[in-house]
Amino acid sequence: MKFSNYIILIPALALLAGSTMPGCKPGKAGSSVDADAAQKVYVAPGKYDEIYTFMSGGFSGQVAAYGIPSGRLLKVIPVFSQNPENGYGYSEETKPMLNTSHGFVAWDDSHHPELSKTNGEDDGRWLFINGNNTPRIARIDLTTFKTTEIIELPNIGGNHASPFCTENTEYVVGNTRFSQPLDNAGNDVPIDSYKKNFKGAVSFVKVDKETGGMKLAFQLIVPAFNYDLAHAGKGPSHDWMFFTCYNTEQANTLLEVNASQRDKDFVMAINWKKAEELILAGKGTKIPVKYAHNVYSDKTHSATSTIEKETQILDVTKFPGLVYYMPCPKSPHGVDVTPDGESIVASGKLAAVIPVFSYKKMLDAIAKKAYDGMIDGNLPVLKYEAVLRGEVKKPGLGPLHTEFDDKGFAYTTMFVSSEVVKWKVDNLEIIDRAPVFYSPGHLSIPGGDSKKPYGKYVIVMDKITKDRYLPTGPELSQAAQLFDISGNKMKLLLDFPTIGEPHYAQSIPAEKIVKNQVKFFKLADNKNAYAVKSEKETKVVRTGKRVDVYMTAMRSHLAPDNIEGIQVGDDVYIHITNLEQDWDVPHGFAIKGANNAELLIMPGETSTLKWNPYQQGIVPFYCTDFCSALHQEMQGYFRVSPAGSKVPIKFSIGVNPVTQ
Ligand code: RUQ
Ligand code: CUA
Q: What is the residue range of the signal peptide feature (predicted)?
């Protein structure tokens, strides 16, 4: 038996590897670009793009915002990684954002941006994104394009199937990629006791309707598989959440071979509404855990980090009716729900068909107990034929992800055969296929996973770029490709490079975001403990070895600009308030030799740089952002004296004016 599995498996793996070999790659794209492509992506100087695309930065830990159709990079939003460009994770105010139960973790691997939804439509309020490595979910406020909250997830390894939100953003949900023993379970166990001791956990993070504030509501303990991706139901399937899982073989070594044995793995369907009811009825078990919850406030311009000590769990094997498994061929990866909420599309990485499951048939199969065995004793596996609506036949090789347009079509990426395939949702017939360059992962259509897709474009994120750009040494730029999908045939319009490795992106009509933009922070509302609201209030205060500098920035000077009485070995905190009350007038701040980054202080905001002078001397500081005609004049000096020196604290600006 085993032997025949290998025969099937080996050519499949060879194909996967083959996709990176020059001999197998599709021809150059030059000829396939229409003459009017340039016109379609040209956004005239001074004009806005039509769409925002929020793309994960992959192993950069960040999110990037692009304008579509131009492909212009608008902003890198720091999330899980320190960003020297603006001091995120370096300033005293933002360091707590990167706190975890493991201490300060200033990097992560971000995969799936998820826009908040109201009635199943993107509402443009928040963007959630997962940290895959040290499991976290972040929330970005789209009025400021700042990360305002990060919650760590206990009990799991690899927060990959995350964060996917329910139809009204009741919850954002994340699931385990690397099953492991629960945190409190006495987890010094042999790795090969995987089947006995390891578990998966699905985290349900409640989202406050008004503020977006997140709270870990409960975790469902599920069998120890690798959970890969997820999507919530909508409309009729509102109460359900669907997850792909692979490694249902429960291998713990050489997964490449050992987790590809079975012909079918599963889509796991969870009735989250029922789980919520059980939790409300007090059926959860409280267990001790440790996880960080970090919140940034636009009032204090500061973050706080709290270590939480408890969560509640439900073991799904003890509550019939919560979880069902639908067999899905060949190590499924993406799972996507059609805009009407009736069909669930799952993509097996090694499969030759795309199965489309019917929500209605799933309910029927549950009612009729059309089971094909049980997992972990009492979690029903539903019969494949009983839940299947149909299969998209011969779609290509290596289907990964699907999104939907506004005209009843689905678009699926084919990793191995390097193409996007367009098919009709109602009859599952293939309409068109377009080569992409090369090996696409996710794709994004504006509103493409929502109830009301906007359509018009698909942005495809490629895993390999090869010969698409000017070479840049051993590592080539990552790439996205833009297609026009307004007509019958997909048309390639543009290649553009991305930051990190873009996994997934979500795209939204710009008007939903533009109207809510914050242009500056009101100085009067600034509640930072070290804010000063005018130059008159600036001061320097010594308390033992701690020195607090209350400084202001304004075109075109920093006040004070001469500071004496600092000593070697001091802890100097420079708190800078940007007094400007105008759009797009940040000031920067940097100190020679500081083992830190710069600050970039938005109008009306206060930020703090910590500095430890280690040698005596005169140390210049300056504004780093070219803010005005006299920006180069925006500078000052610290005088650092030896420890114990008698030089008093002294600060000034403009005391010795030069007169002719
Ligand atoms: S993944 S290329 Cu990290 Cu979303 Cu599918
Ligand atoms: Cu402020 Cu340059």
A: 1-22
The Cα 360–Cα 26 span in angstroms is 40
The token pair at 167 is 């139809």
- Tell me how far apart the alpha carbons of residues 278 and 280 are, in angstroms, rounded to a whole number: 5
**DSSP per-residue letters across 153-187:** -TT-S---EEEEE-TTSSEEEEE-SS-B--TTS--
Sign of CA dihedral 345, 228, 311, 211: negative
449 neighbors 336 (Cβ within 8 angstroms): yes
Name the CATH code of domain 529-652 (choices 2.170.150.70, 2.60.40.420, 2.40.100.10, 3.40.20.10).
2.60.40.420
Q: Residues enclosing ligand 2, CB less than 6 A?
A: 553, 587, 623, 625-627, 631, 634
CATH fit for domain 39-388+399-514, picks 2.130.10.10, 3.10.350.10, 2.40.50.140, 1.10.150.40: 2.130.10.10
Evaluated on CA atoms 33, 46, 501, 347, the torsion sign reads: negative
Atom of ligand 1 nearest to the CA of 112: 4
Give the pairing type, strands 409-414 and 399-404.
antiparallel
Computed over every residue of the chain, the mean pLDDT equals: 93
Distance 499 CA to ligand 2 centre (A): 27
**Closest ligand 2 atom to 553 CA:** 1
pLDDT score at 58: 96
Residue 3: band (very low, low, confident or very high) from pLDDT cuts 50, 70, 90: very low
Tens digit of pLDDT for each residue in 130-150?
Answer: 999 999 999 999 999 999 999
Tokens representing residue 280 in the block: 């409300």
Q: What is the mean pLDDT of residues 227-241?
A: 97
Q: State pLDDT tens for residues 546-594.
A: 999 999 999 999 999 999 999 999 999 999 999 999 999 999 999 999 9
Helices (H) and strands (E) in the chain, counts: 8, 45
Q: What is the pTM of this model?
A: 0.94
> One-letter amino acid identity for 300?
T
Which residue owns the Cα nearest ligand 1 atom 2?
Answer: 441
Q: What DSSP letter does each residue of 207-242 carry, written as one string?
A: E-TTT--EEEEEEEEE-S-EEEEEEE--GGGTTEEE
What is the Cα–Cα distance from 643 to 592, expressed in whole angstroms? 19
d(CA 514, CA 655): 45
CB 79 within 8 Å of CB 147: yes
- In this predicted structure, the answer to whether residue 28 has a pLDDT above a threshold of 70 is no
- pLDDT digit string (tens) for 189-199? 999 999 999 99
The yes-or-no verdict on residue 2 having pLDDT over 50 is no
Per-residue model confidence (pLDDT) at position 634: 97
- Mean per-residue pLDDT, 253-260: 86
So where are the chain's domains? Answer: 39-388+399-514, 529-652
Q: Which atom of ligand 2 is nearest to the CA of 556?
A: 1
Is 111 near ligand 1, meaning CB less than 6 Å away?
Answer: yes
Pocket test of ligand 1: the residue of 56, 229, 414, 461 to mutate, having most ligand atoms within 8 Å of its CB, is: 229
Taking the C-alpha atoms of 176, 178, 179 and 183 in order, what is their torsion angle to the nearest 10 degrees? -80
Q: What is the DSSP string of 556-624?
A: TEEES-EEEEEETT-EEEEEEEE---STT--EEEEETT-SS--EEE-TT-EEEEEE---S-EEEEEE--
